[in-house]
Each structure stands twice: as C-alpha cells, then as structure tokens.
Design brief:
By secondary structure, this protein is mainly α. It is 75% helix and 0% strand. The longest helix has 30 residues, at 2-31.
Length: 67
C-alpha cells in the first residue's frame, strides 16, 4: 500500500489528463458529422474502448476531418 501512495502524485494528474482528453474527444465526435475515415459509431467505440490515450489520439490523427 505504501508503494501506491508514492505514485499518487504522478497518477492523479495523468488520470485527470486522460479523462479530459477523452471528454474533449467524445465532444468532438458527437458534434461533427464528417470524418476522414470511418463513421461516428466507429470512432465512439475506438475512443471509449481505447481510452488509455490511444483511442483519442487515433481519432485526432486518423479520423478528425480537417476544416
């Protein structure tokens, strides 16, 4: 249990950043209609199940339509 307490100062900001990125990604997916690749449903699944930064980053690299 002491080992976990040592890492909390690093884990809490990481978790906050992860959820903030996920929230922004979901907001962007739900408010836009066009995607470079895939559909809204595909990107929602990728963002939610690939939640550990990978899903949202994939969306912004591969799915987000350039305006």
């Amino acid at each position: 249990m002491e080992k976990l307490a040592e890492f909390l100062p690093f884990l809490i900001p990481l978790a906050v950043a992860e959820f903030a990125l996920l929230g922004y990604t979901l907001y962007h997916i739900l408010t836009h209609n066009n995607y470079k690749r895939g559909s809204r449903t595909l990107w929602l699944v990728v963002a939610i199940f690939g939640m550990e930064f990978i899903g949202p980053i994939l969306y912004f690299l591969l799915g987000k339509e350039d305006v």
